[in-house]
Amino acid sequence: MLNIVVLLKQTFDTEEKIIVKDGAVVEADAKLVINPYDEYALEEALRQREQHGGEVRVVSCGGDRSEEALRTALAMGADEAIRLDSSTVASGDSFALATALAKVIAPLKPDLLLAGLFAVDSGSGSVALQVAERLGLPHAAAAVKLVVVGPDEAKASGELPPGASGAARFAVVERDVEGDTETVVIPLPALVTAQQGLNEPRYPSLPGIMKAKRKPLARVEAAAGGEEEGARTSRLALVPPAPRAAGRRLAGTPGEQAAELVRLLQAEGQMPQ
């Protein structure tokens, strides 16, 4: 049996146009989805439960609308969902967010903590790792294959980390390392972050959608902490990128075009004279 917890974030659809107004991103009419990398983590949690038994809980920090993503996760097959109210967490600070999430996850005592490699909206991949640090968990990032095994199988798969020989179960993780793969063995409990290619996430079925309405979805607030647990960063401004300039067509032969391009780049200060 495995007690599995999945960190999940609701993000903009990757095809959605982002609008910034008065220093904030306008979400009112935007399509929001489960962060694609977190979908891989959730699918892997469901597959591990099917193989070993146990429970899958999903934990997310967000506002009321983030419950849409949690209900989708429940419809996919998760057993329970927990929403950490984002209004009680320092906005935009990964240190404060990881601290708050770790306090929610610690009582759950997961055997396996899964998360996406990074969030597609912010590009950040640090929150899950910070949570693992606070919980004292080893971790393996960018997994493209995950197998949970006993000690004998773990020894056959690779070298065990120091002090891990007494663990009852291990995660054998094949991880992406910039075009190649590396196999690592870590003792459970542990964190594993999911890379694209780990699996193909399932679609919620109609029975799953109906069952999701009856599954528990808890709402919690961040636990009060000392000053050392507060935000370490603050956002001074949020501005959209400058509008893209119109394209320019260069006439002449290839040699003349190349010479004109160099002249233009030098005139704009993008190339040394």
TrEMBL record:
Residues 22-229 form the Electron transfer flavoprotein alpha/beta-subunit N-terminal domain. Keywords: Electron transport, Transport. The keyword Glycoprotein does not apply. The keyword Electron transport applies. Its cofactor is AMP. Residues 235-254 have a biased composition (Low complexity). It holds the Pfam family ETF. InterPro entries: ET-Flavoprotein_bsu_CS, ETF_a/b_N, ETF_b, ETF_beta_N, Rossmann-like_a/b/a_fold. SUPFAM superfamilies: Adenine nucleotide alpha hydrolases-like. SMART domains: ETF (SM00893). Residues 224-254 are annotated as: Disordered. Heterodimer of an alpha and a beta subunit. The electron transfer flavoprotein serves as a specific electron acceptor for other dehydrogenases. It transfers the electrons to the main respiratory chain via ETF-ubiquinone oxidoreductase (ETF dehydrogenase). Belongs to the ETF beta-subunit/FixA family. This is Electron transfer flavoprotein subunit beta. It comes from Paenibacillus glycanilyticus. The gene is etfB.
